[in-house]
Amino acid sequence: MDVTGASPYLSIRRLTKRFGSFTALDDVSLDVFAREFVVFLGPSGCGKTTLLRAIAGLDIQTSGTIHQGGRDVSALPPAERDFGIVFQSYALFPNLTVFDNVGYGLVSRGQPRSQIQARVAELLALVGLPDSGAKYPSQLSGGQQQRVALARALAISPGLLLLDEPLSALDARVRTHLRQELKELQRKLGITTIMVTHDQEEALTLADRIVVMNHGVIDQVGTPTEVYRQPASPFVADFVGTMNFLQASVAEHGVVAIGGRQFWVESLNGMKPGTAATVCIRPEDVKTRNVEPGSENALEVEVKALEFLGSFARARLAPADGGDPEIVADFSINLLRDLKVEPGLKLPVALPPDRLRAFPKA
């Protein structure tokens, strides 16, 4: 999504939230643009839900400002902010029908019955439940309840949709299906959306941009490709996807030493010779085809173990002559078959310089 030159729809500046002596958010600033799907990603306790609740006015920040659509909402109560929200628990009223759950916000705003009926019917059709208006939440599956919660959040036509781990209570198959539907719905409606999750696959699948958080601060903001391919810190590299971490030292410009071997690295992030470093490479980036002895960053390895994972296998590799680096690599089923890969096999691999990421050792 191209937002070049656009003004942010949601502007967060220097947001801090403290609970007693604990700092949940520490000087957080972020811009979210109209029609974007932004995902807050991070482990439990990183501050992502606290940030979402501050945007909603459910937990007012200790300091800092929030502007939405050019309006300062920093101190406004939730009822005076323009958003719809879907919680992990759905929070449907068990004593109300699906129709009345979806129309609840419209009734509260005093809209005419005819408009409410038309709007609720439109939304139930939109979320694929056109014939469920007379049912009660207990008569619906978890996935259907989540659709009702989403329809209720959209009923008041909010400018901002907030989703607090909305899919985490569902089983894997339903979660994958609803994930696709949620993204299609967001694109169709063009509603600015912020979702909280600890599930990296959800974030990579749904987001236009991912905000990776850790210990109350933002470690990186970027597209899914940027966050996955160009992690800004070892934490991001470790949390998003699977990563090899190799202990190294900077030998010279563009070269690191790992276990007595030297490897070219495209970017050393300004580290000088002698600096202790952590070098990262993803398992799928280990090159196995068309590797010659003279290829850049080539080494002969022995397959120590194979873990079958369906469409690919994860191999544990060690240099054939001993020593470091030991790495894991992902081999496709085709490669396994073509090269007859099995434990004990020796084969050449390469660590492409443009796929190696180097960070100062913590």
Strand order of the largest sheet: 6-7-8-3-9-10
Please identify the structural class as seen in this structure. alpha+beta
Q: Determine the fraction of residues in helical runs and give it as a percent range.
A: 25-40%
Please indicate the percent range of residues in DSSP E strands (runs of 2 or more): 25-35%
* Structural Rg: 25 Å
Sheet with most strands: 6 strands, mixed
Low-confidence stretches: none
Helix-strand string: EEEHEEEHHHEHEHEEHHEEEEEEEHEE
> What's the end-to-end separation, in Å?
34 Å
Please provide the count of β strands: 19
Q: How many DSSP helices?
A: 9
Oligomer: single chain
Basic shape: elongated
Summarize the structure in words.
This protein is of the alpha+beta class and 362 residues long. 25% of the residues lie in helices and 32% in strands. It has helices at residues 48-56, 98-108, 113-126, 142-154, 172-189, 200-206, 224-229, 234-239, 333-339, and strands at 10-19, 22-32, 37-41, 63-68, 71-72, 84-86, 160-164, 192-197, 209-214, 217-222, 244-252, 255-258, 261-264, 276-281, 298-308, 312-319, 327-332, 346-350, 357-360. The strands form 4 sheets. The protein has a 6-stranded mixed β-sheet, sandwiched between helices. It has a 5-stranded antiparallel β-sheet with strand order 13-12-11-14-19, with no helix packed on it. A hairpin with a 2-residue loop joins strand 9 and strand 10 (217-222). Helix 2 (98-108) crosses helix 3, helix 2 packs parallel to helix 4 and helix 3 (113-126) crosses helix 4 (142-154). The longest helix has 18 residues, at 172-189. It is elongated and about 80 Å long. The two termini are 34 Å apart. 35% of the residues are buried.
